[in-house]
């Protein structure tokens, strides 16, 4: 099982630029609202896109989804680990928790 990261630690790492955040929902949900600096990467695209979106396989990566019951973040984390990424964690709660805590989010168009 992928190691978990809590909201406070993730917020600190995002502010420090010490982590790459991966939105495992993608699509409409990413465009509507995502964690600061997050990149969209859904389970079906990991094998094809991970190398170009996440070139450093030792870099700190955190996957997230909507809430703890959403399986997408764990599935993306597992696929990344299977591809040789060595520092992958999963946000313990998800964007619903992040928003409820009043932390900033971003919105925007998908690229590519």
Number of strands: 5
Instruction: Note the run of SSEs as H and E.
Output: EHEHEHEHEH
SS field, number of helical segments: 5
Strand content: 15-25%
- Radius of gyration from the CA trace? 13 Å
Mean pLDDT: 94
Largest sheet: 5 strands, parallel
Q: What gross morphology would you assign? A: globular
- Strand arrangement, major sheet: 1-5-4-2-3
Secondary structure class reads alpha/beta
Approximate helicity band: 25-40%
Low-pLDDT segments = none
**Euclidean distance between termini CA atoms:** 31 Å
Salient structural properties:
alpha/beta; 5 strands; 5 helices; 15% strand; 112 residues; single chain
Structure description:
The protein has 112 residues and is α/β, with parallel strands linked by helices. It has helices spanning 7-16, 27-32, 46-53, 72-82, 95-100; strands at residues 3-5, 20-23, 39-40, 61-64, 88-91. It has a five-stranded parallel beta sheet. Helix 2 (27-32) links the parallel strand 2 and strand 3 (39-40).
